[in-house]
Design goal:
Elements lengths: L3 E4 L12 E6 L2 H13 L3 E7 L2 E17 L5 E17 L9 E7 L7 H18 L14 H4 L7 H9 L3 H31 L12
Antiparallel strand pairs: 1-6, 2-5, 3-4, 4-5, 5-6
């Protein structure tokens, strides 16, 4: 396992490989980091911070473009997730820099395919979104379903998203999502049913009295 140094940008969110993330850069340490990324095509890792604890699994990201530059040096940038990395040692301040960094190794991904599992998860997500009245299109069909592409759209909390990122195979990730939706779906359906009933309160209702 070959280790290397990677600048780090801890945030209270999870970035999945392949995901596009827009950031507003305003701290001096991260202005320095992004400046170096623009000058040398440097990449950096984004580890999630959950309950003030740093996740040891992160996603390496690259700067795709600068969307806006402000007079005081602040920046709006667009980034894209690349590889998944394991953090072995974290430095709050990198040597001779302002920003954090760490010794990391790259995590190989197993992009195995299980069409039956993909189909099950696809239709579970549809049921969940229907129950919530959520109309975001996630995929054109189950055969293209990828866990990372739907990871933010199935009701996972931050800790669960970190757990999903840490799984090494696509089958494990889809199984994780399937079990999560199967667990929450009955609660979501019942909650939405009660909310619909509550919305009727306070309004005149055209009801047919029962016959005795």
């Amino acid at each position: 396992m070959q280790e290397e140094f990677l600048p780090l940008f801890p945030l209270s969110l999870v970035v999945f490989p392949g995901e596009t993330l827009r950031l507003h850069i305003f701290e001096a340490r991260y202005k320095q980091l992004i400046g170096e990324c623009l000058d040398t095509r440097l990449t950096f890792g984004i580890p999630a911070v959950v309950d003030q604890q740093l996740s040891m699994v992160a996603t390496e990201v690259e700067v795709v473009r600068v969307d806006k530059t402000y007079p005081d040096g602040e920046l709006d940038i667009t980034t894209r997730g690349k590889d998944k990395v394991q953090i072995h040692e974290f430095y709050k301040v990198s040597p001779n820099k302002l920003y954090p960094g760490g010794q990391i190794s790259r995590i190989g991904e197993q992009m195995d395919q299980n069409l039956r599992l993909q189909q099950e998860v696809y239709f579970l997500i549809q049921r969940l979104h229907d129950a919530l009245g959520y109309h975001k299109e996630i995929q054109r069909g189950y055969h293209t379903l990828r866990a990372y592409e739907v990871g933010h759209h199935v009701g996972l909390n931050l800790r669960q998203e970190v757990e999903l990122l840490g799984l090494h195979s696509e089958t494990e990730r889809l199984q994780f999502i399937r079990e999560h939706i199967e667990h929450i779906l009955p609660v979501v359906v019942e909650t939405e049913r009660l909310k619909a009933r509550a919305r009727l309160n306070g309004h005149f209702k055209n009801l047919v009295p029962p016959e005795f």
